[in-house]
Specification:
The protein is mainly α and 81 residues long. Helix content is 68%, strand content 0%.
Length: 81
């Protein structure tokens, strides 16, 4: 029963969306399509969004990070497995 109700709600939403989109001029319909495609994309960040952080880490902190990586990450522990 619940599955049927969910399907009905989904169909109702789809119908409402289509009804509204059909009333729009073609250029606005394209905007809706572009927006829907953006919403459907997997979550993540674009490179451009991340570039706002470029240069925000202090040079001394970067050196500490680099040293920690070299000391801990570039070693092989043959007995680990």
């Amino acid at each position: 029963m619940i599955g049927d109700e969910v399907t009905q709600v989904e169909q109702s939403l789809e119908r409402q969306i289509l009804d509204q989109v059909e009333k729009l001029p073609v250029d606005k319909q394209r905007e809706v399509l572009d927006f829907a495609r953006k919403l459907a994309r997997p979550a993540g960040k674009r490179v451009e969004d991340l570039m706002t952080f470029a240069g925000s880490i202090d040079a001394s902190d970067l050196e500490l990070m680099e040293k920690a990586i070299e000391e801990a990450c570039e070693q092989i522990d043959a007995n680990e497995w």
